[in-house]
Amino acid sequence: MITLRKTTTLFASAALALTLTACGGSDSNTESSGDTTTNASSPTGDTSPSTDSSEPAGGDVAESAWLATFKKGIPELEGKSDDEIIAAAKKVCDDFRASPDAATAKKIVSGLESDLGIDSMKANLFIGGATGRYCEDMSTKFLDAQMGG
């Protein structure tokens, strides 16, 4: 029964990862293109860069959508800053990339449980989204490691 529950949780995590990847799979480390937008509130049609406060500092709308999805799906993240969530997601990738095995996968899950104050199911959902956003090449490897493969 435990194995079935673990398998179901992992597949649910994978499904969420695919959903979150659809919100934007580009790496936020890429430089912005420097495009300018017309400032509609300017009577002269100013083409200075937009300063819309709804966008993150880097102007990555996909990352904002990714963060909003996580904060909505994992309510415990509401009290965390965007930087904390992004750092935790990137740490998942860095740690697993350094040692892609079952022991590391287990350590990452327990680390997220204590660092973010979430249960193991939500930690697995977070991992699915983190790997989908920041290290897509590791998503399947992480799942395999958790399944003991």
TrEMBL record:
Pfam families: DUF732. Residues 41-54 have a biased composition (Low complexity). The keyword RNA-binding does not apply. Residues 25-59 are annotated as: Disordered. Keywords: Signal. Residues 77-137 form the DUF732 domain. Residues 26-40 have a biased composition (Polar residues). PROSITE patterns: PROKAR_LIPOPROTEIN. Residues 1-22 form the signal peptide. This is Uncharacterized protein DUF732.
